[in-house]
Amino acid sequence: MLPDETDTIAAIASARGAAARGVIRVAGPDAVRVVAGRLDEDSAGRLTAARRPVLIEGGRLRLELAGVDRTAAADLYVWPDQRSYVRQPSVELHLPGSPPLLEAALRSLTEGGARLAQPGEFTLRAVLSGRIDLTQAEAVLGVIDARGDADLATALRQLAGGLAGPLGAVREDLLSLLADIEAGLDFVDEEDVVFIEPEETLRRLGEAQQHVAAAARQASDRDAAGELPTVVIAGPPNAGKSTLLNALDQLAGVDQSAVPALVSEQAGSTRDRVSRVLSVGGVRFELTDTAGETAAVDETSLDSAAQCERARSVEHALVVLRCRPADAASPSPARAAVAGQETIELQTKSDLTDAAPPAGVLAVSASRGDGLDALLNQITAAVTELAGGEMVASTANRCREALRETEHALGRAAELVSAGADDLVALELRTALAGLGRVLGDADNDEVLDRIFSRFCIGK
User: Fold this and answer.
1) Integer Cα distance of 11 and 116 in angstroms
2) Which end of the chain has the least Cβ crowding within 10 Å, N or C?
């Protein structure tokens, strides 16, 4: 059950703990009346007379502190109409940042008629009023939980509409396509009236599916707790993958006390995933070493299990480092490009040869350190572009699942076009549009909203 939007709510909006200043936020139809009722006469008069956003300095808020009636100095930022964050009358009180004083001020406001806000209720009201969409609401949480500059930059781009922009364009085209198809159904008996050719329908469905697939891959396996982008080291056994992991970890690893990955002259010594968190120029990512690529015969063997784990790691990686040692007998086979994923081709053990690497391949030597700085630069550039570029993926599982549903519906629609079943094509398009609507903020599901905003702190 969603909280009542007609209630006037209040909460401490600043961080916990002592500080020079603290903030209490009040919003709702009676926000001005509630706050004015707890102020000195002069400040209350200026507040109730406000007809546009205004700053009222030098107010005095009446409160009870340690059993004694007192007043506290408060500056008031006032939005008396719908131009506030929540599109309701709102007042922010900026007071001395003493926790007991802020708690006393909050009690004073609730005694005056406000209700304590629930977690995320201010941002929920911003969504319900149309001020922001759901992806932007989740970005607010991302800003709060940001662990570094890169996390913050990604959340801010999402807050600015990084996901809503490109997928919004996809939705607009699908709406237009649906209109053409349904118009054709209305004139099904008119042989000379063709609103859209099957080839054009397939082309537009393919383009939409490609955009949605890229967004879904970026969102895959990243939940609201903020999983890091994954960079996977892949290649044949004895390609120097574990040595490379250790070398990069020494250069940029977050936990320098981590035990190094096992390095052995014997091929296939790595069976389990080994991961390290790296940070380069404020960009954090998880670097993972995988088992060497082999053709496992016995499906019950440890090698087979390791190969399955390796395949899953590569499939869900944002960036794949394809390793081929300089002393390999044959070149690496070409790997098909995957939407939303970048592959960096590496010639490892470059100290074993004087020959230049093939075009588009970076030569690295983990033992001598050759090419490692250049490799880290390429990795961070790829992670920044894919995880923090214009197509910013929401970190919530809700978005990932909805995008996958949309992608599958578009695929089914394309199959039905070839069968001439336009009525079923229209049905699948509606399913796809419903999935996009859940991502882009057409939210009419209380359970979805409850799940999102329960993760916020009070006052946001």
Assistant:
1) 6
2) N
Query: Which parts of the chain have pLDDT scores under 50?
Result: 193, 221-226, 264, 266-271, 297-302, 389-395, 443-445, 447-448, 451
Instruction: Verify that 287 and 410 share a domain, yes or no.
Output: no
Could you give the CA distance from residue 23 to residue 106 in angstroms, rounded to a whole number?
10
Could you tell me if 314 and 279 are in contact, meaning their C-beta atoms sit under 8 angstroms apart? no
The residue type at 37: G
What are the φ/ψ torsions at residue 138 (nearest 5 degrees)? -65, -30
pLDDT at position 158, please? 63
Residues 404 and 351 in one domain: no
Terminal C-alpha separation, the chain: 19
Q: Tell me the two tokens of residue 205.
A: 């469905």
Q: So what's the pLDDT on residue 228?
A: 76
- Rounded CA-CA distance 26/32 in Å is 9
Q: Residue 392: what pLDDT?
A: 36
Identify the pLDDT of residue 254: 64
Q: Which sign does the torsion angle of CA 433, 438, 439, 443 carry?
A: positive
Tell me, what's the pLDDT at 11?
93
- The number of CA neighbours under 13 Å toward the Cβ of 342 is 16
* Helix ranges, 220-252 (H): 241-252
- Whose CA is closest to 387, among 167, 153, 165, 213? 153
**Is residue 283 domain-resident?**
yes
Instruction: Provide the token pair at 149.
Output: 């500059």
pLDDT of residue 419: 86
* C-beta separation of 271 from 303 below 8 A: yes
Tell me the C-alpha distance between 59 and 76, whole Å: 7
Asked whether residue 301 is assigned to any structural domain, the reply reads yes
Domain CATH for 277:
3.40.50.300
**Structural domain harbouring 49:** 9-133
Residue 393 pLDDT: 36
Q: In sequence order, what are the residues at sequence separation of 6 or more whose Cβ sits closer than 8 angstroms to the Cβ of residue 112?
A: 34, 35, 37, 38
Question: Which pLDDT value is given to residue 448?
Answer: 46
Hey, what long-range contacts does 297-302 have (CB within 8 A, 24 or more apart)? 302/271
- Phi (first) and psi of residue 265, to 5 degrees: -70, -20
Considering the domain architecture, whether residues 369 and 246 belong to the same structural domain is answered as yes
CB distance 35 to 91 below 8 Å: yes
- Whichever domain contains 39, its CATH number is 3.30.1360.120
Q: What is the pLDDT of residue 202?
A: 93
**Are 375 and 414 in the same domain?**
no
Q: How many domains does the chain have?
A: 3
CATH number of the domain at 183, please: 1.20.120.430
Is the domain of 380 the same as that of 405? no
Do both 104 and 208 map to the same domain?
A: no
Would you state the pLDDT for residue 295? 59
Does the residue 142 lie in any domain?
A: no
Alpha helices in 187-272, H assignment, sequence order: 198-219, 241-252
